[in-house]
Amino acid sequence: MTYAQSVGGRTYRFPDLKTLLAKASPARSGDYLAGVAAEDDSERAAAQMALADLPLKTFLNEVVVPYEDDEVTRLIVDRHDAAAFAPVSSLTVGDFRNWLLGAEADEAALTKLSAGITPEMAAAVSKLMRVQDLILVARKCRVVTRLRNTIGLAGRLSTRLQPNHPTDDPAGIAASILDGLLYGSGDAVIGINPATDSVPAVCALLTMLDEVIHKYEIPTQSCVLTHVTTSIEAINRGVPVDLVFQSIAGTEAANKSFGVDLAVLKEGREAALALKRGTVGDNVMYFETGQGSALSANAHHGVDQQTCEARAYAVAREFHPLLVNTVVGFIGPEYLYNGKQIIRAGLEDHFCGKLLGLPMGCDICYTNHAEADQDDMDMLLTLLPAAGCSFIMGIPGSDDIMLNYQTTSFHDALYVREVLGLRMAPEFESWLIRKGVFEGADHPHPRKTLSSMFAPALARIA
Amino acid sequence: MSDLVVVNPWEGLRRLTQARIALGRAGVSIPTKPLLDFQFAHARARDAVHLPMDREGLCARMEAAQFPVIELHSAAPDRTTYLQRPDLGRKLGADSREKLGALAAKGAHGFDIAFVVADGLSAFAVNEHALSMLEAIRPKLTEAGWRMAPVALVEQGRVAIGDEIGAMFGAEIVVILIGERPGLSAPDSLGLYMTYAPRVGLTDEARNCISNVRPEGQSFAAAAHRLDYLLKEAKRRKLSGVDLKDESEMKVLPTEGKQDQTNFLISEGVSPRA
Q: Which of A89, A156, A423, B126 is buried most deeply by CB count within 10 Å?
């Protein structure tokens, strides 16, 4: 079906839904690279007007990637909950934005709605929203997940402690873990990106993290961010796996480029569930995503990168994850060119994920070949927790010495909690205070003196 | 440091890692000195992205080390285009394709392995380490009697360009040595990507990767050990990528020097440092 918009004495035509979505997307380098972006600002604004007039129901009748060719499309269509969709089924995309901003769309209404919203609907409305809209609506969504602690409660901001080391050296990793714990990081997960996918090396890291968590009775979970099939192999070898990790994308072909499909993700989840390692819940998956991954695998089907990204969230929600992390600035300037594009993309991803019912966090980050710096990250770092972001990364001094990019530091989390009055996951916070790492019941902050819990460990390396 | 900064009593851990640990805090924020150190490191990494590949020097050193070389260029004409058009960095420019085709037609075709050296995002890494890495792996291949194609030296190249070059050489396996994105602490990391039966259009799931190869990261010897394992397994099983797990056991290697091998958070008793 063709869409058209007459404005300013000109008629703009869009041959199909995916073109309309792409042309309405705020400017970013990846859509220019793919050749799907608006020709100029006027065409973009006209496309947004045409999109605003589109009935939401259109998305139930026209898909952006063919049903026959793509298991992600089949998942989206087959899992759509018509009853949940009912409250907004008569609205246009433009009025959906109005509805979301209004008082009727409260926490309870948005929770009920999520199963009725498709990724394409979420992407479409986000394209009409300004930054403040993306913050205001996401803030009303509440997604709470649990394994050994509780993530996503109102007024809380969790962190993934990311103690990466270029050679997976146990002592080097332990040093970063201790630094992070003493700065109050790690309530979302202690998660290592291993230097290789070697099965013995991954098993050694998993065992080490499990020992640390048990020895110090830390109410959190661990993860080694390796391929799902490697985690399954580790489980088969009897190694303790809390969370099964996988990078995912929004088309079947892009997922194939990661070496996964829905069946192997299901297999991974079932293997982890069978271990019954949760104490307060059973969310056992950790997914990472990022705009541009489908195009990077030449698997985007002419769909813009933000819509592709939202489709990845349909994959994620099928498996009830503990954490979903959009690694927003990692992919590089060919997809998100500068600080402005990274900031908007991070807020879009968080909004779409939360609207679809996911525990969204964000790796607020950039690479050294992008036009971005620490000031850009501070802006996103301040905006996302205002939008109710579930978790961010925590790394020593913002410098990932293994992945060679910059993400948020342990200090950054303390800064934003102080500015916005946020706290960490309740179980983790109690542990830090009980063990003398933090103090202050109303306003927990790091103690100046060292917790006696870690004195023996430090004595060992003295 | 002045008493305006809260010093961390665990500064001794710094000798265990290059990570920016135990920075102390001003309030809850990063103190001024580590803040400025970070900004300088970022400035250096930004500069590394734009350093050109030392084509002449590399050629001369490789030829001297008995590695025949063919110089190629991707379809990305310059750095600015390269950064925004990864598609162009993944394929050969027209002149280079013709040059390589002519060489293959003259009999340089049908190899066990082809090595490709490309600048990627850090020509610095390639300038410094590509030859050392090739020299570390060569004895293992010579021993196994593998036929090696001339080394393809590629400017403005991305990982997938190796597959096109490997295919044109008729190589059973291609390995590309490429400069990884420069980090603050590691502007000189080399990445190795291996593909069995290379051809245009393959994606990441068809490749195996060894990353962070540099003297302070994964040593050339360790990387050669892993690569040798992957190469032999790929040839034996006729595949590469996610179906080929790296089962190489690194503990048989001599330890890499400066670092402690145990985790002080859990190990009891003896100090790991002699």
A: B126
B220 and B240 within one domain: yes
pLDDT in tens, A398-417: 999 988 899 999 999 999 99
Note whether residue B263 is domain-resident: no
Q: Is the Cβ of A398 closer than 8 Å to some Cβ of chain B?
A: yes
Do the domains at A3-137 and A145-446 have one common CATH topology?
no
Cβ–Cβ below 8 Å for B13 and A177: no
pLDDT, chain A, mean: 97
Query: A54 to chain B nearest CA, in Å?
Result: 33
* Pair (B30, B106) in one structural domain: no
Minimal Cα–Cα distance from B259 to chain A, Å?
Answer: 7
Q: Are residues B149 and B246 in the same domain?
A: yes
Closest Cα in chain A to B31: A411
Q: Please report the beta strands in A119-263, taking only residues with DSSP state E, as ranges in sequence order.
A: 145-146, 150-151, 158-161, 189-192, 222-224, 244-247
Q: Is the pLDDT of residue B254 over 70?
A: no
Q: Is B274 on the interface with A (CB under 8 A)?
A: no
The 10s digit of each residue's pLDDT in B129-176 is: 999 999 999 999 999 999 999 999 999 999 999 999 999 999 999 999
Question: If you classify domain A3-137 with CATH, what class do you get?
Answer: mainly alpha
What is the ipTM score, two decimals? 0.95
B179 shares contact with chain A (CB less than 8 Å): no
Nearest-CA neighbor of B69 among B166, B172, B149?
B149
Residue B1 lies in a domain: no
C-alpha to C-alpha distances, A420 to A351, A384, A439, B234, nearest whole angstrom: 19, 11, 19, 53
CB contacts, 8 Å: A461 with chain B: 12-13, 16, 260, 264, 271-273
Classify residue B52 by its DSSP letter. P
- What's the pLDDT score for residue A297? 87
Of A167, A172, A448, the CB nearest to B218: A167
- Among A189, A191, A195, which Cα is nearest to A168's? A195
Which are the contacts of B102, defined by CB distance < 8 A and separation ≥ 6? none
- Which CATH class, in words, describes the domain spanning A145-446? alpha beta
Mean pLDDT for B226-233 is 95
Give, as one character, the DSSP assignment of residue A246: E
By C-alpha distance, the chain A residue nearest B264 is A457
pLDDT higher than 90, residue B257: no
* Both structure tokens of B242: 């996610």
- Asked whether residue A246 is marked as a ligand-binding residue, the answer is yes
Strand ranges in B41-170 using DSSP code E only, listed in sequence order: 69-73, 111-118, 151-155
Each residue's pLDDT tens digit, A53-106: 999 999 999 999 999 999 999 999 999 999 999 999 999 999 999 999 999 999
Residue A152 and residue A182 in contact, taking contact as beta carbons nearer than 8 Å: no
Instruction: Count structural domains, chain B.
Output: 2
Residue B153 dihedral angles phi and psi, to the nearest 5°: -100, 115
Its domain, for residue B16, covers 11-49
Q: What is the rounded distance in angstroms from the CA atom of residue A112 to the CA atom of residue A109?
A: 5
What CA–CA distance (Å, rounded) separates B229 from B211? 15
Does B157 reach chain A within 8 Å, measured CB to CB?
no
In chain A, where the domains are located: 3-137, 145-446
Q: Which pair of structure tokens corresponds to residue B75?
A: 């379809």
- DSSP state letters, A317-359: HTT--SEEEEETTSS-TTTS-BHHHHHHHHHHHHHHHHHTT--
